[in-house]
Amino acid sequence: MTAPHPKAPQHAPLRDDRRVVLVVAVLASFVVGLDSSVVNVALPAVRSELGGGLVVQQWIVDAYLVTLGSLILVAGALSDLYGRVRIVTWGLVVFGLASVGCAVAPNGELLVVARALQGVGGALVTPSALALIVAAFSGAARAKAIGTWTAWSSAAVIVGPVLGGVIVDGIGWRWIFVLTAVPIAVTLVLVRRITGDVVSGARPRIDVVGAVLTVVGVGGLVLGLIEQERLGWASPVVVLALVLGGAALVAFVPWERRVTAAGGTALVPLVLFRARNFTVGNLATLSVYGALGMVGFVVTLFLQEVWHFPAWLAGIATLPPTVVLLALSTTVGAAAGRHGPRRFMTAGPLVAAVGALLVLGAGPDPTAYWWSVFPALVLVGVGIALMVSPLTSAVLGSVPQDEAGAGSAVNNAVARIAGLVTVALAGMVLGGAMSTAGLHRAAVVMAVLLVAGAVVSWFGIVDPDRRGSGSPT
């Protein structure tokens, strides 16, 4: 039986900067969330100007998620080695420059490249922002802070679709990428006010081979899944991408074990998975965030391409989940800190699954929004609110303080990769084009994934007050 991981220390090395740290973490995540939320609304307008159909729309979403999901592991290691504050700063600068590239892209290919560079910036920002909170808060205060971070970070998802829709309909989709400039500028100023940081004493080399295996594995699978819709399963490009991607992912775990055995620093510290809540929490993340990734992509396209909502109205119509999340996350985070995450992580996906099935009531008539899509999105929002903060607390509460960056990176990578895979699969689920029947098939897939996440959480998650902070059995 493997010895349990030591508990995270209860001191908070950035406690003197708590307020600034929380604001910086929220704004940094706001930048990443804003970009993600506005892009879905702009996809029909981008297709009209640059062409490419559903395949280009998928790549605009997934090029960002491929680099974000694969490099976020490297970013987590960099965060632990060189400091959360420094890596957040680098990430914001890269993200800002890539946003300018998106705004001026003359064709779909260059837009996809710029989106991939945005993913690099997002990868640097995401784990470091959350790890800052872990370093500044402890105990119940940490759970509440994570709830606050979840709620206010979600404001980006509220502002993004509405403001993005207005901009797309008014002055053009390119201007949505300018939106990131303001929060980036403000955050860079505030970062300089943080007086401390958390940096590992040792400076081992970054696991470059592990990073390459991750990028090739994730990128190859996504390339194959997306391009099969256009080229067919028998295409050499599709076959080669799937084979290389699968082989790279299969080789990843043995390579990480080898690095660890040789005394190096693995890209993914496999020792983290000795903590039961860490392992189970990431399995739940894989299924639940896969469902949520499909919700955002499919519903937004359906509203604009089948019901012909203008971009601004589609933005408003997809707000209910975020409004509910913003209203409930802090309260749920505090409650989960007192009572444990297991019940919340089980109930949340089940409520969201019921919401996903309500989408089956949507038909060709747009007025069906009020008795199908609207209540569905409200229930999805309630489910997300019940799950997100407890899930984050369960996962990060089970890792040591000095590996919080890596733990956050792994969990974020799992979430992003789950979303990008379901978006890559959207072409098969939708049948190559958006339709009412395709929406119904996607709703069933969402519900199945959400129920799977609930089952995994109920049987796998251990409340810390009963068995310790997620230590293994």
Overall pLDDT confidence: 81
Structural class: mainly alpha
In the CATH hierarchy, the architecture of the largest domain is Up-down Bundle
Shape: globular
Distance between the amino and carboxyl termini: 8 Å
Radius of gyration: 21 Å
CATH topology of the largest domain: Growth Hormone, Chain: A
> How is the quaternary structure best described?
single chain
Question: Which H/E pattern describes the elements?
Answer: HHHHHHHHHHHHHHHHH
What is the count of distinct domains? 2
- What profile does the largest beta sheet have? none
The tally of strands reads: 0
Write out the CATH superfamily name of the largest domain.
Answer: MFS general substrate transporter like domains
Name the helicity range.
over 70%
Percent in strands:
under 5%
Briefly, what CATH class of the largest domain? Mainly Alpha
Number of helical elements: 17
User: Which parts are unreliable, with pLDDT below 50 for 5 consecutive residues or more?
Assistant: 1-11, 466-473
Describe, in plain words, how this protein is organized in 3D.
By secondary structure, the protein is an all-alpha fold. The N and C termini lie close together (8 Å). The N terminus and C terminus are likely disordered.
Give me the secondary-structure topology.
Blueprint: H1 18-50, H2 53-82, H3 84-104, H4 108-136, H5 139-153, H6 155-170, H7 181-191, H8 208-231, H9 236-261, H10 276-305, H11 311-317, H12 320-339, H13 342-358, H14 373-396, H15 404-430, H16 436-460, H17 464-467
Helix pairs in contact: 1-2, 1-4, 1-5, 1-6, 1-7, 1-10, 2-3, 2-4, 2-8, 2-15, 3-4, 3-7, 4-5, 4-15, 5-12, 5-14, 6-11, 8-9, 8-15, 10-14, 10-15, 10-16, 12-14, 13-14, 13-16
